[in-house]
Amino acid sequence: MTRTRRATGKAADVGARRTGRPRAAVAGWVRTRLRSAPGAAVALAVLVAVTACLAAALPLAVDRYGDAGLRRAMESAGPSRTTVQLFTSDADTLVPQETREADLRWDAVRGPRAELLSLPGRSLPLDRDQSAYGVRTTDPLPVREPAELAQPSALPPQFHLVAQNDLAGHSRLREGRLPKAPDGAGAATRAVEAAVTAETARELNIAVGSVLRVPGLQRGPLMVRVTGIVDPRAPDEAYWSTSPVLRSPHLMTVPDDPARSVYWVGALLLPPDAAPAILATGLPERYWHLAPDASGLHGHDLPRLTSALASLEAGPLLQQARTAVSPSLEADTALDEVFGEYGALRTAIGSLVAVAAFGTGTVAAVVLLMAGGLAADRRRAELTLLRARGASLAGLAARLLAETAVVAVPAAALGLTAALLLLPGGRTPYAVAAAGAVALLACAALPLRAVAAHRAVRVHAAREDIAAARPSRRRTVAELTLVTVAVGAVVALRTRGTAEDGGTSGDALVSLAPVLVGMIAALLLVRLYPLPLRGLARPAGRLRGVVGPLSLARAARTSGSAVLPLLALLTALTTAAFGGSVLTGVADARDRAAVLAVGADARLEGAPDLPSGLTERIRRAPGVRDVTAVAVALYAQPRDSRLAVPVAAVDPAGYAALSRHTDIGAFDADLLKTPADAGALPALASPEVADRYGTRPFRMGLGDGGFISVRIVEVRERTPAVTGQDFLVVDRSGVPEGSARPTALLVTGDRPDGSALREAAGGTARVHLRAEEHARYSDSPLRSGAERVYAAAVAAGAGYAVLALLLTLLRAAPERAALLARLRTMGLTRAQGRRLLVLESLPQALLAAAGGTVTAWAAIRLLSPGVDLTTIAVSASSSPAGRAVLRTDPVSLLVPALAVLALAVGIAAAQAWWSGRRGSVRELRAGDAR
Question: Strands 681-685 and 728-731, how do they pair?
């Protein structure tokens, strides 16, 4: 049997089938191939490991910044909005007094707590330690005694009586002792003990031993003796901050009071067993606060969280809670609004990140396919010989698959491990699936390419000439089908993107748009590329030199299957240009929003006005170029209208220069100068104010007793001094002296120093910096994380594009080296050889660069109506700059394309230089062998 195999030269799979040891034959094949080409195996392993690591890292990174963004959203909203508050007042007056007191006993209040905390289960994780419960008054009660209590506007403070669980565990005793409940506390109790926080004691002049007389309901007052002053252990956590009045008193304004009188509202902390005594003051309510555990919330669980919250607010979970507590139990929270805002931001950001992910993923997949194709081309003679000696396609594919899997699978596992170690905490199954897809594609690329190239047994391969080749009908039908599908998807996207709703929908169609446009461009360019080559072939033949015609002929010898490399380059260039435009648009939107929010590079505001001499001190601060003083009357009111209109009194020349510098409502300073006849002051107005009052003169009261007469002469959408939609701007010299004192300083300069400005202000003014406002917009973990992922994806796509270009040039490197060696024997100089390779690579490089630029421009123009950068840049609900749209960035369009052109030319020149340093004998022998 062995003698027969040697005689006939059958392939290894035939011998393995006859000997009955296919596994041993495959193992021998794999060992032989790995030993014969260790460099190729190492290169494939590195490529697969890096690609698997990047693929696995993407979902892990998305999960990490998604979770961090949700936690930041919860933290920014605060426990007062994120805690689910369950409460019941049991305000039925027909309920006997004994029953009410029994319901307020601490055992009755504590009883339902465990069941309420278990209702959401894992769907909405709760923080049991911060989830408080207790009894409180439904409304604050005014307390007039003792007389030393703080009483701004001569109004007595008001207090909530609160009996909340575990006061000792959530506070530190500063003075006195913790309160104790009287025996048998109830509606008839006359006196109780309480504690207050240190901040409440300081603001309201309360000391240990103070006795507060809380008015009773149809009886005498309830005497509350303060026995202790406490400091909250975690004042920002839900226990203290769900009802912030527990830790800090706050000033309230009397409703509908023209004088805007204020009074203090605070809290008196009673011991839990004293809860029934609150009945003496009215009808108290029982409450249970369910505080979400932010550390247990995940962004990808948002639908489940939203569903559980809806059920707890007005669904089956609320019905179960009412069964456990009382039919009158109600729920209240703003957590659904927090989830909604976070979900909208995550969706808008996710769609843009998906654009980079799909583009980079496509380029990486193309590179893996190209690596397999390169290996198949390098081994074409070997595989052709095996097929000629009887190797079956299935056996050949199995051996190539085993050979590749031995390298690719461990490399993918290594890349997955590296991703999990670098980015712990994400969803592991998604990372495993991504790394597995990379391993599968890497394993299948070489066998599929080999099977496609060696379906028929042949000895000599046909010459590849893109200028002379005529694509088959099957290929034409396949390309037309792909183009039709891609064009249909693009048209659908364009139609939807220009719809009235606008916005980024976040589906796969938006994310695939650059890939679809790149596919269309690649197929069209490959078809159009031969036309200029054919047109230039005859004129080039009449040239006297040899380099021009030969380089053109060499360019025409390019492989006819150039769609994959071109698709990789076009997709990478499109993704890079799109990503650069997105990042530039986000930065511009934030910068514009920061300028509109501040009105200058820095802003100093004081109330009611700024001290004299501050302008000169600010002018001497580092980084300050100019200072514009303005006097803003926020509540100025026309005499024939009840609507207040902010009026800014400015120096026309300086304010006009500031408007031009910030590009906010630039105007001609001469328009605002006070007229010589002391008539109505010319005014710059917003469109709303101009529509309301027209061009007739009208009187304005400035709020401090002064009056001016104004006439609107110019309309601008915005102005630096006022951030609202309504404003008037007049010459400060025409305003009464009492109303002309500066209330704000608008500073321009080269990055003014915030510390120096605050030091110069000396606490007399609030300082707002444009740079700090810009940084605040990018402080969100969701936004910053998405930007980092986007930038990393674009960088990875650029790297894979370079690799695709290298693989394309590497495929032709041996033939080029042999050609130069032959031509040198015929008298070709080294300089001519360099020019030959450079000119040969120029048509393909120009095709990729020009095609990539046009494709990127088309993709950006296509997506711009449907992409809203406002949400990712700042916030759709709080953007002072309005909607931020996607625009083409010339740098992002041209730099990647020029880099591809320079790289292609540089590689060709480097190859010519290296070939010139080597001898010709080796290359000639290699060429003869081929």
Answer: antiparallel
Residue with tokens 């109830």: 186
Tell me, letter by letter, the H, E, C secondary structure of 910-929.
HHHHHHHHCCHHHHHHHHHH
- Write out the two tokens for 410: 């461990």
Q: What is the dihedral of CA 132, 135, 137, 140, to 10 degrees?
A: -30
Contact 196, 268 (CB under 8 A): yes
Secondary structure element (H or E) that encloses residue 710, with its range: strand 707-715
Please write the tens of the pLDDT for every residue from 563-620.
667 777 787 788 778 778 887 888 888 888 888 888 888 888 876 677 878 888 888 8
Q: What are the residues facing 286 on neighbouring strands?
A: 88, 135
Q: How many residues does the chain have?
A: 930
Note whether 225 and 177 are within 8 A (CB).
no
* Full DSSP string of 43-81: HHHHHHHHHHHHHHHHHHHHHHHHHHHHHHHHHHH-HHH
For residue 780, the one-letter residue type is S
> In the prediction, which pLDDT does 415 show?
93
| Cα distances (angstroms) measured from residue 396 to each of 440, 492, 540 | 18, 44, 45
Q: Is the pLDDT of residue 445 over 70?
A: yes
As a whole number of Å, the CA-based R_g of the chain is 38
- Name the E strands within 68-157: 84-88, 133-136, 141-142
- Establish whether the linkage from the previous residue to 742 is cis, with ω within 30° of 0: no
| Residue 266 and residue 204 in contact, taking contact as beta carbons nearer than 8 Å | yes
Strands (E), 543-621: 602-605
pTM: 0.77
Banded pLDDT at 411 (limits 50, 70, 90): very high
Q: How far apart are CA 803 and CA 172, in angstroms?
A: 63
Beta bridge pairs of residue 604: 745, 767
Residue 662 in tokens: 């910030």
**Phi/psi class of residue 60: alpha, beta or left (left: φ > 0; alpha: ψ in -120 to 50)?**
alpha
468, 476, 453: which is closest to 557 by C-alpha?
A: 468
Task: Look at residue 621 and give its three-state secondary structure.
Answer: coil
Q: How far is CA 279 from CA 83, 102, 138, 194, in A?
A: 26, 11, 11, 16
Q: Is the bond into 146 cis (omega within 30 degrees of 0)? A: yes
Tell me the C-alpha distance between 430 and 524, whole Å.
Answer: 36
243, burial (CB in 10 Å: exposed 0-12, middle 13-18, buried 19+): buried
Strand partners, 613: none
Structural tokens at position 71: 């936690």
What band does 416 get if pLDDT is binned at 50, 70 and 90? Answer: very high
Q: What percent of the chain has pLDDT over 70?
A: 80
Exposure of 615 in the CB half-sphere (CA atoms within 13 A)? 15
Which 3 state secondary structure label does DSSP give 753? Answer: coil
Q: Is the peptide bond before 720 cis (omega within 30 degrees of 0)?
A: no
Q: Is 848 helix (H, G, I), strand (E, B) or coil?
A: helix
